[in-house]
Amino acid sequence: MKIAAFCLVILVLFNSCYTYQQINPVKDEFIVSEKYEIRIGNREKQRVYVKEVKETTLLVTHGKTDMVVQKAMITESRKMKPSTEKTVLAVVAGSLALLGAMVLIVEREGGFVDGDFLDSKNP
After folding, report:
1. Which tens digits make up the pLDDT trace of 39-77?
2. Membrane-crossing residues (predicted)?
3. Fewer CB within 10 A of the end CB, N or C, for the chain?
4. Taking Cα atoms as reference points, which of 56, 60, 57 lies closest to residue 33?
């Protein structure tokens, strides 16, 4: 149980996730290493990461798949930027979930033993 509690603490403290929000539409100005939301033709919008920009094409990553996209086929595009509010909310929710999990672990192990629940073998 000590390992599970330690792993949960590490997951919350060292998370590096961001949530993104849309900003103004982009015409043909794509920047390498930035995230965009694009629509190709009549398809649904896709969130992509731009790896390479050429004159008429883009090399993007969607999920774990690399794709070459013709700029002429893009009907709508928006640059995504990190959303501080959503990221803070996610960290707070994760911290509360971690606290709840740790309380459940402590209760399952029988609560505090001599004021020390992590190392009850040593007095």
Report:
1. 888 889 888 989 998 888 889 998 889 989 888 888 888
2. 87-106
3. C
4. 60
Beta strand segments in the chain, E: 20-25, 35-40, 46-53, 57-62, 65-70, 74-82
The helix (run of H) or strand (run of E) holding residue 66 is strand 65-70
Contact 106, 36 (CB under 8 A): no
| pLDDT number for residue 51 | 92
3-state secondary structure (DSSP) of residue 117: coil
For residue 21, pLDDT over 80 is answered with: no
Half-sphere exposure of 2 (CA within 13 A, CB side): 6
Q: Which token pair is 15?
A: 């998370």
In eight-state DSSP terms, residue 44 is P
**Per-residue DSSP letter, 1:** -
SS3 15: coil
Residue 18 has pLDDT above 60, yes or no: no
Question: Quick one: angle between helices 84-108 and 2-13, nearest 10?
Answer: 170
For the chain, report the end-to-end CA distance as a whole number of angstroms: 19
